[in-house]
Amino acid sequence: MTATIRKIIVQVDETRMEMGQVVNPPTRRALAMAVIANPFAGKYVENLDELIAIGEELGGLLGAKCVQALGISPGQAQSYGKAAIVGEAGELEHAAAILHPKLGAPLRLAVEKGAALVPSSKKRGGLGTAIDVPLGHKDAAFVRSHFDAMEARVADAPRPNEIVVAVVVTDSGRPLPRVGGLQVHDIKGEDGLR
Question: What CATH number does the domain containing 128 carry?
Fold first, then answer.
């Protein structure tokens, strides 16, 4: 492994009722987070390849942990998202290096296919900083029922020299979606949009 991981946190959010209405089947979202050492904390480094490699490693690891936590096969995953919080001795570009160049390909393998871009967010913060992990359908970005987010937070992270990396995978869209648009059963999944 390239990443020095201090801890991994996995949790599942299951919504069974919304506004007094039963949600059947329940909507479920799994969040997997890794708290890692930032190898470039406290210094400017031109080449961020080490963080790019860490992103590739964590995409598969965290994606697989989400699928496992949901108890589904990879093909049953419906939406995904990614985010990172950089501790104060790091810079925002460290999060970008983890999230963008290579994290997506192994995450797509973990959820089978994934034609759409993986929504993402990043920020800098200290212990207990929260971030919303944006979500979108894995194969068709225009599926409105899957526009969502899940909050990620680790009480004791990130320390100044750490990064929290988060991946969310769902087995459904929002509870009781009613805003129209492209429906899951109409997805072609060829261009990542429809």
Answer: 3.30.1330.110
Residue 151 within any structural domain of the chain:
yes
For residue 2, give the 3-state DSSP assignment.
coil
Which of 81, 87, 97 has the alpha carbon at shortest distance from 133?
81
Number of domains in the chain: 1
Whether the pTM exceeds 0.85: the reply is yes
- Count of H-run helices and E-run strands, the chain: 3, 7
The reply to whether 106 falls in a domain is yes
Which residue in this structure is represented by tokens 């963008």?
A: 100
Residue 191 inside a domain? The answer is: no
**Residue 142 located in a structural domain:** yes
- Report residue 82: phi and psi, to 5°: -145, 155
> Which residues are paired to 9 by β-bridges?
33
Question: For residues 40 and 161, what is the distance between their CA atoms, to the nearest angstrom?
Answer: 8
Q: 48: domain range?
A: 5-186
Whether residue 39 is preceded by a cis peptide bond, meaning omega within 30 degrees of 0, is no
pLDDT, tens digit (0-9, with 9 covering 90-100), for 130-177 = 999 999 999 999 999 999 999 999 999 999 999 999 999 999 999 999
Nearest to 103 by CA among 114, 118, 121: 118
CA distance 160 to 158: 6
